[in-house]
Structure formats: C-alpha cells, structure tokens
C-alpha cells in the first residue's frame, strides 16, 4: 500500500477515535448490514451504561466498508439517543427547538433500513411517504452530523453532507482495494462492543440467530446474531 493511502486510512481511524471527545459513539463495522446496524443501535438506546455519556452515534456496516473499498466513498449513518434530549446535552439550535416544542416526544433514531446511494449523500427516507419530522430530534441530530463532518475534515478528509438529519455523510477518496478498511478498535470502543454483545443476550436475543435474508445457497446463520425478520436483501453481507 502506498504511503498516501496509508495516511488517508490513518486519518479515518483517527477521526473515528476523536469523536468520543464530542460524546459521540463511533464504531466502524458495527454489523454486517444496515438492518443489523439499526438493531444494534436499538439495543444501545435501551442500555445507557453501554454508551457511557454519549449523546449520539455514528456508524457504518460491513456493506458500507465493502462499498468504500470498491468505489472510494464511505457512507456514515448517525443519530442521537432520545433520552439525552434534555437541556443539559442539547446544543444551541436543539435547545431552541426543545423549548419551542416542550412535551413533544422525539422519534428515537433515523431509519437506517433503507438502501443508500452508492456514490452520493442520499436521504434515507426513500420514496415512502415522509413522517412529520420532530424539530428537537432533527436539531440535535444535525449537531451530531456537524460534529462528525468537522472532525473528519480536521483530519484532511473530503466530506460531503447536505446538512439534513435524514441524510448520510459521505467520506470521499477512500483508498480502494480489498481489505483496506480494517479498523482497529481502541480499548474504549472494544469495551463498548463487548457490552453490546452481553446486553443482546440479556434482552433475550439469541447468540446465534438465523438470517432471514436469502441468497443463492439459501438462509445462513448471521455471524452477529441479530439478523432477524428483515426483508429479503440479496446484498446482505452475512449471506455471502
């Protein structure tokens, strides 16, 4: 691998690690596919001790990483934990929305199950009828998105995002080639992943679930134990 590629990959790794200073959980390769990633975040949202003092999260799945290796763009999903939407954790824009909408219950997180664009920042809303956007959640989510963009740009990486809470963030010019995005978790991230695994069992989810996604050779076990009852997805990483 050439020095320039090594430098860019190091910058991506540094950016992920630096996000914890902004109270944002960042775990690349959290699960095999968007559906499993969404399930993992659902579990985290119910376990405050699993996420320490994090107000939000940013993540990418193995499919995203494989796409980045092939096309050079890493797509990131992000959001906030609903129980952190209080005056003590909100930034200025979210604080204003919170005061203007007292009593309104925010949606829990973005819909990560929709397919995303292969090259461009793309809304996760798809073509389905859009639900009313909660202004408090949207403002807090945008603050997380801005923090993610700023951290990656500070490391010299090219980032594209349209500023919307329902759009993913694109990190451009990722070095292409197989197995380039092999991130090493720092101790705190590794501890978090271990807690997520333990909490999954506490919540009654089997350690070895059967993935409902199908491929040419039929249903296979999901290595992450969280592929359950999702729509058929021939691109599911755990089916290959």
Automatic annotation (TrEMBL):
- Record-annotated DUF6891 domain positions: 14-83, 108-173
Coiled-coil zones = none
Signal peptide: which range, if any?
none
The annotated regions of Basic and acidic residues compositional bias extend over: 109-122
Task: List the Pfam families hit by this protein, alphabetically.
Answer: DUF6891
Q: Which InterPro entries match?
A: DUF6891
Provide ranges: composition bias, Acidic residues.
126-135
The annotated region (Disordered) lies at 89-135
Q: What is this protein called?
A: DUF6891 domain-containing protein
Q: Which organism is it from?
A: Chlamydomonas eustigma
